[in-house]
Each structure stands twice: as C-alpha cells, then as structure tokens.
UniProtKB/TrEMBL annotation:
Belongs to the GST superfamily. Mu family. It holds the Pfam family GST_C_3. Conjugation of reduced glutathione to a wide number of exogenous and endogenous hydrophobic electrophiles. This is glutathione transferase. It comes from Tetrabaena socialis. The keyword Transferase applies. GO terms for molecular function: glutathione transferase activity. GO terms for biological process: glutathione metabolic process. The keyword Transcription does not apply. It comes from the Eukaryota.
Length: 410
C-alpha cells in the first residue's frame, strides 16, 4: 500500500513573497514622494552644519554621498572612545540560512525579519511596538533606513562635535546614518522600519544608548504574561500544602509553587535575567535587596512624632554613623552613586533597581517634598526607572496595587 505524502505548507513562501513585495512597493512610493517634496530642513539652527546634515539625505544624491565621507566619524571613534565597545556577533544564526532567504526573531518588542542577500550582507525589517527602543550602536559603514509605517525618533551623536542630534521621522522618510555615528531609535508609534548597510555588517555598542535600551529588554519578555493576584483568604489560612506559612504571597508558575516574598522575587529575577550578569553582580544585588528590607515599614500609619524619629534615625544626613541597625537610606544611595547613578549594580536593570525604586516610592508617600529636597539623586533615579517601557505602562494601569501589604503605607 502506498504511503501518504505529507502535505507541503506554502505559507512560508507566501509570507516571504508578501514581505518582499511590501519592501518593493514602499521603496517605489518613497522615491515618488521624494521627487515631489522639498528636502528636509534641520530642526534647530543651533546645530553645527555637519550635525544638521545628519537629519536626512539631500536631494542631490551625488552631493549627498560626497558629504557622507565628511560626516563619517573618524576611526578613532571605534578605538579611543571609552563608551564604544565591540558588540557581540548579531548573526541570529544567519550562517546556516541560504542566500535569498530570511529568518525571524521575536520578543516582547516585536519582530525582526533578517534577509540574507549574501554572506555578511543583510536587509532587516523591524516591527516594533510603541514605547520601545532599538540599536544603540554604530557601524564602520553607512546605514540606511526607510520608515514604512509609524513615527520614530532618532538620536545620534555627531562624532565630530560630540553633540546629540535628535530628529523625528514618519512614513516614507529615508534616513542615512553616516559611518561610525552612535545612534538609537525611539519608536513613538507602532512601527515598521527597513534597514540595510553599504558594507558587511559589524556593530559596536555605544554604552550610554545601549544601557537605555537594555533597561527595557527584560520587561519586554514579561509582556502579555498574567501576573494578576487572585487570593482565597479562607484557603490561605486552612490549606498548609498551598500556603505552608498561612499567608500570601504565593506564586504558581508551571511546576514551580512558591511562598514568601523574597523567594518569589529572586525566582522571577533569575528567570528574567535581572539578578546581574556575573557572580559578583549577583552577590551585590542580593546584598542590596537585604539592605532595602531593613528599611521596609510595616506600620499602617506613623504619627507625626514617630515620623520625625524615624526620619532622624534612618534618613537624616547626619545620622549615618548612629545606631540604626544597619539601615539608612544613605547606605543605599552610596551604592547607586558609586555605580554612576543609573543602576545600583552593573550597567543594566536588575532586581536591585526595582527594590530600591519601590522603597523610595513608599517613602515619597510618607515624606513627600522633604525626601525630594534631601535626596534629589534618589528621586531622579526613581523617575528614570518609572519611565522604563513596560514599567511605565504597568504603573499607569489598574494592575498596580494602590496599597502594598494591604495598608496605605507599605
């Protein structure tokens, strides 16, 4: 008896054809739009001539490419700038992909379709949700981008003056990023972007931009996960299998069933790569988490006299050497300051940042302007973390608990 032949799926070929067709159609549309519209002008008269020219490709292509040679950063940008480091390989497994084929990578931010024209030569199509960022790098060749849909903001560092140039682009806009120019895209709307280079792909990271992008990466991985709280208080007090300590919180994640707040926090931090990159960073993160716990308040409310005594012991600038049980907000600020002010540990978001943010947020409710005036660095950190994509949306959503620990203060 003849064996049945599995039915071949044509969808990958159809999808590939649709993408290629979309690219061609939008490029033709862009060319027509450019012929009928004036060249884009710089947004600021204060920009240096070289920086202003970064805003877009002039209409005269020959003149534009000659100017690109002067706009490109010197080679010393790659070797002598302290904030520029060689990026790890970003092939996404392209070595095994045949020429003319594509591979797709997806995360919480959207998707990247990477087309392989030949070895080392790629065309990328990005689909990115509003609020996220990409790039944070620079290349040893010119980069070209076409916005197919949605508005985006492009930040670039002029490699000659060191000034930041900022410009917004919309559908059909053509962008040229000169060689050795640090840049970062901020997507203001859901966006589709086409990108390619005029030489083999190789990247260097610009750390100030890359660190901002990496802030949002772990949070992107949690997008669409349901972390809602569903508590049965009667069961919590009676079922010692589910609630061995007779209290919340409890986390169930597949086969993982956990109680105790800090155990759950550390588990999620490990799962979403928020515990640090090295053993030293992991230990520092763990230490800071314990330091934060020393300051946590479990009182429902504090009377004014108690607030004054609490401030004097744990927050006053002149009491760090007094008897405080190892708890003082200045101790935590010291870690932040020593590490540059953006992160408690390392150069990326960790659970230590989130724990410090939470304890600062709690005390802002209690002490308000007094805390802001005494510790402006902590409040700047608090605002920066609250603006991270994913965190920002959560804080503005109904999912945020108004009363942690079931009371109004902590």
């Amino acid at each position: 008896m003849a064996s049945a032949t599995p039915k071949k799926s044509w969808w990958p070929y159809i999808e590939h054809g649709l993408l290629v067709g979309l690219i061609g159609w939008r490029c033709v549309e862009l060319w027509r739009a450019r012929r009928s519209s004036p060249a884009r002008k710089p947004s600021s008269e204060a920009d240096a001539p070289s920086a202003a020219a970064l805003h877009g490709l002039p209409r005269d292509a020959l003149e534009a490419f000659e100017r690109l040679k002067t706009l490109a950063g010197p080679r010393e940008v790659l070797t002598e700038w302290p904030d520029v480091v060689e990026a790890p390989g970003a092939s996404m497994g392209m070595e095994a992909v045949p020429e003319g084929e594509a591979i797709v990578f997806r995360d919480g931010r959207g998707a990247i379709y990477k087309f392989k024209l030949k070895e080392g030569v790629y065309v990328n199509m990005y689909f990115t949700k509003a609020g996220y960022r990409r790039s944070g790098d620079l290349h040893d060749c010119n980069q070209y981008d076409v916005v197919l849909q949605g508005r985006t903001r492009l930040r670039m560092i002029d490699p000659h003056s060191g000034k930041e140039v900022v410009q917004e682009y919309g559908a059909n806009d053509f962008i040229v990023i000169p060689a050795r120019t640090p840049h970062m895209f901020e997507f203001l709307e859901d966006n589709c972007l086409l990108e390619w280079w005029d030489s083999s792909f190789k990247a260097w990271y610009y750390k100030p931009y890359r660190s901002v992008i990496e802030l949002g990466l772990p949070l992107a991985e949690t997008e669409n996960r349901d972390f809602s709280v569903d508590t049965n208080y009667a069961e919590m007090k009676s079922d010692r299998t589910k609630y061995p300590f007779g209290q919340c919180p409890r986390l169930v994640d597949g086969d993982i069933d956990l109680c105790q707040s800090n155990t759950i926090t550390r588990y999620l931090a490990r799962k979403y790569k928020l515990m640090g990159k090295t053993e030293q960073e992991v230990c520092l993160v763990d230490m800071l988490m314990e330091g934060v716990e020393s300051l946590r308040i479990y009182n429902d409310k504090l009377a004014e006299a108690a607030k004054e005594e609490y401030w004097k012991t744990y927050f006053a600038k002149d009491t760090t050497e007094g008897r405080n049980g190892g708890a003082h907000i200045q101790y935590l600020l010291n870690f932040l300051t020593k590490n540059g002010g953006k992160h408690c540990v390392g150069d990326a978001l960790t659970i230590a940042d989130l724990c410090l943010w939470e304890i600062v947020d709690l005390h802002v409710r209690i002490f308000g302007d007094k805390l802001k005036e005494t510790y402006p660095e902590l409040l700047a950190f608090h605002e920066a973390i609250a603006d991270v994509p994913g965190i920002k949306e959560y804080l503005a959503s109904p999912k945020r608990l108004a009363s942690p620990n079931a009371n109004s203060m902590g």
